């Protein structure tokens, strides 16, 4: 889709050269050649190349530069029309360039300015020209330009939506994997690990009930050692099933690592505080809190333009609470992106809540509360 847009933009940018070449050819074969029009044609070609071909990132974005370009385009075209009416062949290209180069309503003002070019050639019938242009040509150019812009906006909207859906789909797939890993880890903990713990306990009791010289005692000791080794391996496997940042660290440490990584990436001061008595939580809860931290920080980095961010992880009696506050530009909290929506859905599945408070110019506060029992 993006490549197709680039090709169409290239066609729009190159089209004026075609019409300029045709107009110049008609001029060369139908009139005595004068040097001034040829110099203006060359200057116009270079002018268009520099502002449009060489700097496509300026289109509809650098309004000042594009107004300068369009003024030069109109001026050069007027000079050509003063020398010979054959250059009127190039005028339709100016309509397209108005929508290519100028943003918003300025493009429509550019179309009206282009209409004035039809009055430049000597001997023009003023009444007929005004009637044809104001009654037909200009409205048609405005209508076609408006339709093209509507189509472009729709294409961009669909592309952005597809990109967001792709990201969300990948996030959901990743979460499903994490949830399955957490389920397997929980099942291993509740069945295999607990069973091996019971076996070790029973073998220790049996070992104590046998005399030191009893040959059975050696067998029991060997069985106890094997069961304990197996229990260690099972616990190691359970830890390996946890998400990367939580694999070798507790939740508070994983949150602090995420904060440090974000600060190094964005260069924004960020303070992390862990309060209360830290304790192990369910794998799903720890994953949800960590992902919420990463998503809130990612939003602050992409949109907030914050000067400071504060992250607080609070262990309370029966809940764990995450607060992420920034002093950025804020936004309308009723308009949620895919990231916040996914965070809310993930937390809601665990019976938790997500609260977002924000206003333009007053920063953003994200609160995530989950059951810690």
UniProtKB/TrEMBL annotation:
User: Which Pfam families would you find in this protein's record?
Assistant: HATPase_c, HisKA_3
Query: Which keywords annotate this record?
Result: Kinase, Membrane, Transferase, Transmembrane, Transmembrane helix, Two-component regulatory system
Q: Which GO terms describe its molecular function?
A: phosphorelay sensor kinase activity; protein dimerization activity
Gene3D superfamilies in the cross-refs = 1.20.5.1930, Histidine kinase-like ATPase, C-terminal domain (3.30.565.10)
Q: Name one GO cellular component term.
A: membrane
Q: Which CDD domains match?
A: HATPase_UhpB-NarQ-NarX-like (cd16917)
Signal peptide residue numbers = none
Keyword Transcription listed: no
Q: Which residues form the Histidine kinase domain?
A: 289-373
Chain ranges passing through the membrane? 12-29, 36-52, 64-82, 94-118, 130-151
Q: Does the keyword Transferase apply?
A: yes
The record's listing under InterPro entries reads:
HATPase_C_sf, HATPase_dom, His_kinase_dom, Sensor_HK_TwoCompSys, Sig_transdc_His_kin_sub3_dim/P, Sig_transdc_His_kinase_ChrS
Task: Quote the protein name from its UniProt record.
Answer: Signal transduction histidine kinase
Coiled-coil region(s): none
- Name its species: Lentzea albidocapillata subsp. violacea
């Amino acid at each position: 889709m993006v490549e197709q847009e680039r090709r169409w933009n290239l066609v729009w940018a190159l089209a004026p050269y075609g019409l300029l070449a045709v107009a110049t050819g008609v001029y060369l074969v139908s009139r005595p050649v004068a040097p001034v029009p040829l110099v203006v044609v060359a200057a116009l070609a270079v002018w268009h190349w520099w502002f449009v071909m060489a700097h496509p990132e300026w289109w509809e974005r650098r309004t000042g530069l594009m107004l300068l370009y369009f003024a030069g385009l109109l001026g050069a075209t007027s000079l050509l029309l003063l020398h010979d009416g054959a250059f009127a062949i190039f005028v339709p290209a100016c309509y397209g360039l108005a929508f290519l180069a100028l943003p918003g309503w300025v493009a429509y003002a550019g179309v009206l300015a282009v209409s004035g070019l039809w009055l430049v050639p000597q001997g023009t019938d003023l009444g007929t020209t005004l009637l044809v242009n104001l009654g037909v040509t200009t409205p048609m150019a405005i209508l076609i330009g408006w339709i093209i812009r509507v189509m472009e906006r729709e294409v961009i909207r669909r592309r952005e939506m597809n990109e967001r859906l792709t990201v969300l789909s990948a996030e959901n797939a990743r979460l499903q994997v994490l949830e399955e890993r957490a389920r397997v880890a929980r099942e291993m903990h509740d069945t295999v690990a607990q069973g091996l713990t019971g076996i070790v306990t029973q073998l220790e009791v049996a070992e104590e009930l046998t005399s030191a010289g009893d040959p059975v005692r050696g067998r029991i000791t060997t069985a106890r050692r094997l069961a304990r080794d197996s229990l260690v391996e099972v616990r190691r496997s359970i830890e390996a099933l946890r998400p990367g940042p939580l694999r070798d660290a507790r939740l508070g440490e994983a949150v602090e690592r995420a904060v440090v990584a974000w600060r190094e990436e964005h260069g924004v001061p960020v303070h992390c505080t862990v309060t209360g008595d830290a304790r192990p939580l369910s794998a799903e809860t720890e994953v949800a809190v960590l992902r919420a931290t990463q998503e809130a920080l990612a939003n602050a980095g992409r949109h907030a333009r914050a000067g400071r961010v504060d992250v607080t992880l609070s262990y309370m009696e029966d809940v764990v609470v995450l607060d992420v506050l920034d002093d950025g530009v804020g936004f309308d909290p009723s308009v949620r992106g895919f990231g916040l929506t996914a965070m809310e859905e993930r937390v809601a599945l665990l019976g938790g809540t997500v609260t977002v408070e924000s206003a333009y110019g007053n920063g953003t506060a994200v609160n995530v509360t989950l059951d810690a029992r």
